[in-house]
Amino acid sequence: MSLLDFLNFHLVPGIVLGSIYAVGAIGITLVFGILRFSHFAHGDMATLGAFIALALVTAGMGPWSALPIAMAAVAVIAIGVDKLFYDYLKARPKIVTVMASLGVALMLRAVVQVVFGVDPRTYASGIVRPDDYFGILLRDRELYTLAAVVAIVIGLALFLRHSRWGKAMRAMSDNPDLARLSGVDNRKVTMLTWAIVGALCAASGFMLGINNELHSMMGWQVLLPMFAAAILGGVGRVEGAVLGGLIVGIAEELSIFMLPAQYKAATAFALLLLILLVRPRGLLNGKVL
Amino acid sequence: MKRRTIAGLVGAMLGAAVAAAPAHAQDVKIGLMAAISGPIAALAPPMAAASKLAVTHVNEQGGILKGGKLEAVLGDSACNPQNATDAATKAVNIDRVLAIVGPACSGAVLATANSVAIPAGVLMITPSGTSPEITKLKDKDLVYRTLPSDDYQGRALARTLKARGITKVAVAYLNNDYGKGLAESFKAEFEANGGTIAGYSGHEEGKASYRSELAALARGGADTLIIFDYGDGTGLSLLRQALENNFFKTFVGADGMKSEGLVKAIGAANLGGFFVSAPVGEASASLDNFNKAYKAAGENIDAVFATTSYDAAFLAALAIEKAGGDKAKLAESLRAVAMAPGEPIMAGEWAKAKKLIAEGKDIDYKGAGGDHEFDAAGDVPGSYAFFKVSGPGYESIADMK
Amino acid sequence: MDLLGLANYAVFMGILIGIYALLALGLNIQWGFTGLFNAGIAGFFAVGAYASAILTSLPASGRLGGYELPLVVGWLAAMAAAAAIAWPIGKICLRFRSDYLAIATIGIAEIIRLVIRTEGWLTGGVRGVTGVPRPFGDLDYMPSQIAYLAIVATLVLVAYLLVERQVKSPWGRMMRAIRDNELAAAAMGKQVEARRLQAFVFGSALMGLAGALFVHFNRSITPEAIDPMIATFLIWIMLILGGSGNNRGAILGAAVIWIIWSVSELLTDRLPTEIAVQAKYARVFIIGLTLQLVLRFRPEGILPERQAGSPPHR
């Protein structure tokens, strides 16, 4: 097997998949860090975002133009979900909110199934052969995916580090009581967090759909790799989520060298268990909540 | 207080559901256990539509027994035994169905047969359960299928490919009873006939990328990839990713891959090297009848398992008619109407069949998806055809032996 | 209205409710009394089911089996196998905080499912295990079901009494102490880790037994039965609705949710086909919504945990 083969058929798909996982994992890690619970509805929110984009594409828009609108829509939906289903559980133990998020996942999935049906769909029909960049085969949509992911990560990092609201989010992540004392409005920060998380969900769902097909279970099926990525990188650290996502994605594609293909899905779980046993803070030293 | 409210609600629901039962004494019900939710949810609506088409034909052409209405009760087997047995129990006990069409998944078939159909003496015809385990059921002759067990189709495909001069292939199969069964029987026959399997790998559904599996399979050096999967599911992803990355030149699938949605998603122009096999009836007139009626009902004729679903429902109705509505005689009546000798009946010819049965004459149903000459265990051997992509659908190019 | 048919349907429901009640009781030990979020119920259910199936079934080519051992052996083996698998999982994972434990157990249930689907030499792979005997299986339809219901109901009763006794005993009080305030309990010298492991293993054994009962009712087991929706999440909702920390609540929750799940289908059947198909998807929505409503308006469940003092603070 030549080096080019390895790059094109194992590494590149792994990196593309890993970037998609990374975007989702960032959302999960934000919820972990700032709101302190595991958001099990993350995958199905991504599915919803992908299908909203599909509805727009069916109405005539180009896919990449539909993306920002889908992101905005899911941002609003995420805020709504929080107000309806998570907000009043604030005072209860966090594990109850986790259960509620499970219920939300089921509901979102059912909505997608009723409205869009259960057939697999695509943004564009036909096949797209990759372009040759000095032997590396890449398609436009993969380049855009990688570019989008880089843009999201840099944008988010700058926002968190330099803007007032970003600092407020970090403050709330470190210590909500102290943050409140120093004048941060936790409720507004929560809403902002959900808006960002919703947008990220939509983006990851869209990118998953544009590189493959869309179906109603797509989000649920990537939920656990995304959780693995977030925990692997270190909970609460955005860079950690990106690193974790890439590692999980590449590992899944490389697992074929060691395990029969049926066990591909187990790779993410294996990594998750490994990191929880060996280094629960994650690779980049996140919190241990 | 809470308990009483809940009990009250449940009682009301139960009462409402049961009270809605029909009144006419001659009406007959059959159950349609379709896998509406679950892993093959995309395949279920066309299958249910095909069975309902059979019911419509019955009702339009004289009704069942003495002019009664045939009613199909839809249940969701969800492709798992818990839901399937629940849905079947309701159909058998509350709706008092005489026969069940379905369930779609072999695991659900086994469970439903064992805990509902066989104890209750209800006829069960599955249009898509392909596991060889179904043959082994001790079923008091009540369980049948209108499609051949995986064993047959896999072997027929192997022989056909050898006959077409293809000697080296790679095999990718979905890890469920359908895909694995086909792959195993294909491999056995292909290698027994001197062919080489240059790659053999199972995969689970729902992964985002199959490129690494395809690359590993391609490394074996074969030009042809056999895909045992569903065209409305992971099979689509596999085929697309293989085409996009120039793995393999020729692709062959079984009936699960014969999907119009796949042609639409990938584009007929890209599918010149794609072939599928599917079970067909010997008398193509029957298939034509079915296709015409199915298309007129707004469905797409290439839907997977549509023909077998129609046949299962039509056969159930014929059996009930022949048995005069007597549950105990259903099994022998089914064999009488489905098997030679007898006056051939095509799909959709309910009026003709009804008249002949009333006259006491023997009939032989030649279905849209096969002739259904049941063997002792209730299995059918099936005959197949090899298809290529043509326009938005498929066109038969050869018979398979 | 066909009373006999309705009664038979009720008996069938009773059998499934009984099996789910055992699962809920097992989960109650783990979550209700010990605070362990086990989201991998399907895995233990599967291990118990397959263990009993493999030991009691007829021989089959290509896989382990054909021992045709008596039923009781199969059922005891199911409990033992589930417990045996729970032990290392517990040892490794129980130290995680609750939502990490949830993710880890989901992952483990998935791995168990993949192994079952792939390792055909052991489990028959996707073909599953058939030829499993059923007690009183040769009787007529309704008597056979009634007999099976009697067996299930007896086992549920025995399990309930056993667990109730344990819960009221000093062991039970200690478990609740550990759940409510781990630090204090540890400070008082209680072996926190060992006790939690005990609870985890015990609960898993009950889940394994439920698996065995399911297999023998259907005389077969295939991997589709280990779907997470029907074998894990439904049970969680049953326990939360019924009242976690209360054994009667667990059984009640199993009954209520299963009845809603099953009877709601009767209603959707009356609709015209296209809507009927959509309505089947809506069943999942209803279940998710039920969970939300319970969490909002009656979070302690229908039958709350019986308090001997102040409410728990986790």
Distance between the termini of chain B: 68 Å
- Level of helix content of chain C? over 70%
- Report strand order across the widest sheet of chain B: 7-6-8-9-10-13-14
Find the CATH superfamily of the largest domain in chain B: Response regulator
What is this structure's SSE topology?
The complex is a heterotrimer of chains A (289), B (401) and C (314).
Chain A: H1 3-35, H2 42-58, H3 63-86, H4 94-116, E1 131-133, E2 136-138, H5 140-162, H6 164-174, H7 176-181, H8 186-211, H9 218-233, H10 238-254, H11 266-278
Antiparallel strand pairs in A: 1-2
Helix pairs in contact in A: 1-5, 1-6, 1-8, 1-9, 1-10, 2-3, 2-4, 2-8, 2-9, 3-8, 5-6, 5-8, 6-8, 9-10, 9-11, 10-11
Chain B: H1 2-19, E1 28-34, H2 44-60, E2 70-76, H3 81-93, E3 99-101, H4 106-120, E4 123-126, E5 143-145, H5 150-163, E6 168-174, H6 177-192, E7 196-203, H7 211-218, E8 224-228, H8 234-244, E9 250-253, H9 260-266, E10 274-280, H10 284-296, H11 306-323, H12 330-338, E11 343-345, H13 350-358, E12 363-365, E13 383-390, E14 393-400
Parallel strand pairs in B: 1-2, 1-3, 3-4, 4-5, 6-7, 6-8, 8-9, 9-10, 11-12
Antiparallel strand pairs in B: 10-13, 13-14
Chain C: H1 3-32, H2 41-56, H3 71-93, H4 98-118, H5 120-123, E1 129-130, H6 141-168, H7 170-180, H8 182-187, H9 192-218, E2 220-221, H10 228-242, H11 247-269, H12 273-297
Antiparallel strand pairs in C: 1-2
